[in-house]
Amino acid sequence: VGLHLKKIVSNQNFKLKSLFLVINKYEMNIQAEKIELVKMLLDTENPKIIESIKKIFKKAKTADFWDDLSVEQRNEIEKASREIENGEITDYESFMQKHR
Fold first, then answer.
1. Which residue, among 28, 24, 29, 22, has the nearest Cα to 81 in the 3D structure?
2. Between residues 55 and 15, which one has the greater pLDDT?
3. CA-to-CA distance for 46 and 75, rounded, in angstroms?
4. Cβ atoms of residues 90 and 17 within 8 Å
């Protein structure tokens, strides 16, 4: 039982580390996108663009992003969640080695 439990805990740690790597990579991409948007906003002199951006932010505060996703996007997210739960994951380094 001890070895089996140790394997489960080890597998869970691997899943968490892999999920962290995916989230971390996503966060880095988000930060780069935000910086690019800030640059574009600072460069614009068009008040309509600024007003449009304000409207987007106001709408986003009240809306759940899930509602804005297509059925295909929702299905992909749900599929990915099931794969993670089933241990069907690849760590970042292994993935990168295969795709370089």
1. 22
2. 55
3. 38
4. no
Taking the C-alpha atoms of residue 21 and residue 16, their distance in angstroms, rounded to an integer, is 9
Contacts with 22 (C-beta within 8 Å, 6 or more apart), sequence order: 92
One-letter amino acid identity for 62?
T
Which one-letter DSSP state was computed for residue 99? T
Q: Give the predicted TM-score (pTM) of the model.
A: 0.37
Non-local (6+) Cβ contacts of 91 within 8 A are 14, 17, 18, 21
Q: Tell me the domain boundaries of the chain.
A: 2-98
pLDDT digits (tens, 9 = 90+) for 8-41: 545 566 666 666 666 666 666 778 888 889 999 9
CA distance 58 to 43: 22
Euclidean distance between CA atoms 68 and 70, whole angstroms: 7
Termini Cα distance of the chain: 41
